[in-house]
Amino acid sequence: MEPCAIAKTALEVLKKLYELGKRVLREKPRLKREEYVFCNPFYYRKDRPQQPLCVKCFENDREGPMAEPGVNVTPSYRQCLLCGNIVEVVTAGEGRSGC
Ligand SMILES: [Zn+2]
Questions:
Q1: Are residues 14 and 59 in the same domain?
Q2: 53, 78 contact by CB (below 8 A)
Q3: What's the 20 CA to ligand 1 centre distance in angstroms?
Q4: Which of 31, 38, 58, 78 has the smallest set of CB atoms within 10 Å of its CB?
Q5: Cα–Cα distance, 39 to 48 (Å, whole number)
Q6: What's the gap in Å between 56 CA and the centre of ligand 1?
């Protein structure tokens, strides 16, 4: 096989992978609810409990990481990096329950 032909084949494979990747993104599987836990006011992945996740995105089967408190908003709020949803942070002892 000519080096050029190999490169062409590799390119075809990459293209196919790219198409496949696009399809996977479009038909994104639903989030596995059992892998997450709700702790007011955010969802958390059980294996990544330090990263709060947006409830709004979670309902749309997306993982929306929340920015640090006070980023683009006042310090008692956190903003979703995915959809821009702003949520007031509940501090310990203020209705934090079930977690
Ligand atoms: Zn969100």
A1: no
A2: no
A3: 26
A4: 38
A5: 13
A6: 5
